[in-house]
């Protein structure tokens, strides 16, 4: 489905919304609303779940998304969550408690699992599907392999769409902002005849190219714009309470810019931006473009028997991305550009098939349980392309075909020992097999020193055990042990390096915490202490002196820290939330070293390496994990001013802070990202019994610009966060 059609669907949706407005239910403003989550595959009060879970929904989710940014806007908005990308909107990389993966290749494996409407999105390109008409985002830290599987040793980020119902309602939202930003979003719930209901949701986001390319005769004169459109259709069939079937189909079409690499963006010997840096100007002599087409669907069946619920979840996904960029980020002959590089990565023939059957007890006794089987099958071909930097025509292709088949069986039991103590435990066995074969076509180099094909075959038990104890009517304490597992990873041979492989990793995690609702449920407070050890941690050495990206295992890595969440209804008109985390991570492998970038390139701006050098390698033992801030904090405050006619004026502000981060495995002055604080402000007016809203907003209100990532290549190339954006939004509920 092409972009114009998706945009037209969004507009058609807006104009087709039902004319009959529904009355908005008045909320109890004297206490906090109960938070219901599905972190353990059942609907439960967040206070009763023995793990660190955060939920973003409702107005908070709408405010964070208002600027049109992709789902990286969630980064730092709950404790210990970091999201970054060197691909732009198409390829987010998730980190929980400092544990993630910096690999940028299209078959990269990530230890944080992303689940959308009960379907695991394994390939990193699938994980960037836009957020719209979303009921909630849940972030579950720590290993979650018992019930979710598929590479969850760091945790899970779970997205749940608003489901169809028999109500006739919907909404439409329109935003206009600087940089030519236009966002349209809407949804309509459509009761059909008899036992059927449907919901259609759509979003289209546009931004103009706001960065000028000042290079002479630039083939890409402007960049950083995008057009990103998506649509989701759902049909619910529920003839009676004992059976339901939910069909979900979705599409995405992205045409935009890859991550903009900026040559010599970092000042030599510091981690400051270079003198005279201008976020709206760049000079490069290559082509920058990015496209992505995605389609998928799922069928969720539920049978409710007298003492048993049976679920079947079938999913299928297909994605076809192409991202092409000027990797050196500059112009040949410019300082620090000893040679030009223009490359691209695409994927052909991708398909992911998943099937889960899960049984769930449906009784009122002290014991409840779940058990099931999970099947996974994925296949695709990656096309790594090199372009002639003069003609900009593709002259070399390295094709890598990968298949991944996996299955798992799992079970989990909850047992209420008495009214105060509940025990939970689970176990899962996973079998995972991958095959990789690489071929070469073109005039470029191809390193076959370590072969052109490889296979892995892993099997592993994982599980968890926890206890929750009710101290009193307002406070629970809990303890949890969990073991996680991630299967082996492989990467294809390239012009600079042979194929590489990293063996399976496993993690043991220990956590204690508390959850309280105090002061007549006007204060909700939770906290946790945790420690984990990863054995045979999979790492990616990116770039370096030979521009070789390869997989490797560290003997061990550790992490420990603390997390805190607070919600306070200070008055019926003032709500404040706060979240914070402390994360200490460390690589522990005295023999592990990687070559720093630029060390073999003539004319390169060498990074100032801070690690001991042995034989041309920087020794990384004791370094923090990449993109793992030690401190994070987030704050929101909403103040409401009710008016006599029932309308409302409000002010909403939100802030997120993360401390400095290390971009790579080795430490260098230039490749240490400064601390980053981003804030937003929204002022709005709600009227018509809550059905209409108009607001003005500012994102990154202080316009704090930081280098948020770098290219370990032939110069001090970096990329930055979004500058200040602002706009106005109108939303109507029907």
UniProtKB/TrEMBL annotation:
Residue window of motif TonB C-terminal box: 717-734
Domain annotation TonB-dependent receptor-like beta-barrel: ranges: 294-656
Residue span, TonB-dependent receptor plug domain: 46-156
Its membrane topology: Multi-pass membrane protein
Keyword Manganese annotated: no
Signal peptide per UniProt: 1-21
Keyword list, A-Z: Cell outer membrane, Ion transport, Iron, Iron transport, Membrane, Receptor, Signal, TonB box, Transmembrane, Transmembrane beta strand, Transport
Major place of residence: membrane
UniProt record similarity statement: Belongs to the TonB-dependent receptor family.
Record's protein name: TonB-dependent receptor
Species assigned in the record: Pelomonas nitida
Species lineage: Bacteria, Pseudomonadati, Pseudomonadota, Betaproteobacteria, Burkholderiales
């Amino acid at each position: 489905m092409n972009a114009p059609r998706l945009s037209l669907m969004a507009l058609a949706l807006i104009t087709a919304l039902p004319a009959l407005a529904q009355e908005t239910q008045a909320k109890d403003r004297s206490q906090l609303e109960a938070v219901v989550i599905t972190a353990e595959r059942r609907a439960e009060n967040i206070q009763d779940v023995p793990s660190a879970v955060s939920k973003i929904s409702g107005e908070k989710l709408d405010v964070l998304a208002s600027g049109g940014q992709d789902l990286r806007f969630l980064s730092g908005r709950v404790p210990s969550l970091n999201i970054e990308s060197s691909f732009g909107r198409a390829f987010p990389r998730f980190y929980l408690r400092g544990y993630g993966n910096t690999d940028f290749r299209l078959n990269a494996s990530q230890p944080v699992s992303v689940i959308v409407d009960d379907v695991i999105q394994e390939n990193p390109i699938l994980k960037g599907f836009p957020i719209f008409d979303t009921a909630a985002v849940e972030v579950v830290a720590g290993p979650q392999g018992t019930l979710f599987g598929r590479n969850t040793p760091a945790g899970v980020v779970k997205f749940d769409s608003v489901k169809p119902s028999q109500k006739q309602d919907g909404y439409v939202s329109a935003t206009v902002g600087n940089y030519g930003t236009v966002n349209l979003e809407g949804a309509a719930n459509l009761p059909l005849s008899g036992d059927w209901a449907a919901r259609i949701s759509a979003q289209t986001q546009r931004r103009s190219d706001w960065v000028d390319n000042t290079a002479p005769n630039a083939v890409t004169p402007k960049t950083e714009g995008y057009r990103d459109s998506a649509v989701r259709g759902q049909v619910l069939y529920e003839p009676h309470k004992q059976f339901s079937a939910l069909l979900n189909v979705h599409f995405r079409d992205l045409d935009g810019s890859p991550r903009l690499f900026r040559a010599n963006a970092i000042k030599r010997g510091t981690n400051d931006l270079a003198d005279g840096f201008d976020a709206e100007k760049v000079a490069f002599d290559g082509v920058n473009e990015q496209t992505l087409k995605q389609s998928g669907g799922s069928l969720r069946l539920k049978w409710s028997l007298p003492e048993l619920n049976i679920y079947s979840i079938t999913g299928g996904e297909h994605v076809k991305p192409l991202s092409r960029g000027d990797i050196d980020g500059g112009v040949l002959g410019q300082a620090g550009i000893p040679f030009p590089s223009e490359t691209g990565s695409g994927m052909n023939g991708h398909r992911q098939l998943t099937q889960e059957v899960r049984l769930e007890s449906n009784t009122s006794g002290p014991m409840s349980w779940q058990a099931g089987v999970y099947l996974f099958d994925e296949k695709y071909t990656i096309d790594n392309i090199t372009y002639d930097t003069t003609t900009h025509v593709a002259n070399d292709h390295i094709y890598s075909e990968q298949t991944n088949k996996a299955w798992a069986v799992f079970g989990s039991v909850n047992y209420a020992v008495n009214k105060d103590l509940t025990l939970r435990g689970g176990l899962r066995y996973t079998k995972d097999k991958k095959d990789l074969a690489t071929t070469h076509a073109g005039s470029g180099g191809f390193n076959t020193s370590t072969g052109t094909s490889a296979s892995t075959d892993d099997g592993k038990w994982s599980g968890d055990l926890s206890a929750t104890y009710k101290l009193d009517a307002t406070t629970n304490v809990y303890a949890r042990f969990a073991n996680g597992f991630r299967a082996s990873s492989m990467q294809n041979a390239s012009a600079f390096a042979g194929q590489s492989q990293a063996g399976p990793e496993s993690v043991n995690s220990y956590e204690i915490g508390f959850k309280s609702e105090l002061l007549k449920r006007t204060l909700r407070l939770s906290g946790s202490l945790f420690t984990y050890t990863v054995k045979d941690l999979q790492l990616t050495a990116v770039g370096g002196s030979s521009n070789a990206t390869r997989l490797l295992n560290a003997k061990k890595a550790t992490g420990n820290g603390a997390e805190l969440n607070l919600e306070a209804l200070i008055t019926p008109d003032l709500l404040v939330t706060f979240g914070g985390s402390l994360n200490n991570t460390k690589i522990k492998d005295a023999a592990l070293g990687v070559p720093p970038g630029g060390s073999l390139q003539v004319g390169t701006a060498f990074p100032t390496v801070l690690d001991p050098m042995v034989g041309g390698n920087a020794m990384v033992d004791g370094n923090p994990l990449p993109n793992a801030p030690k401190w994070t904090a987030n704050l929101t405050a909403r103040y409401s001013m009710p008016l006599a006619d029932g309308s409302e004026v409000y002010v909403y502000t939100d802030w997120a802070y993360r401390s400095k981060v290390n971009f790579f495995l080795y430490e260098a002055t230039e490749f240490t990202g400064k601390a980053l604080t981003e804030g937003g402000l929204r002022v709005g007016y709600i009227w018509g019994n809550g059905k209409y809203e108009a607001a003005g907003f500012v994102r990154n209100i202080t316009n704090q610009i930081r280098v948020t990532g770098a290219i370990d290549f032939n110069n001090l190339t970096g990329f930055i966060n979004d500058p200040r954006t602002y706009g106005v939004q109108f939303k109507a509920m029907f």
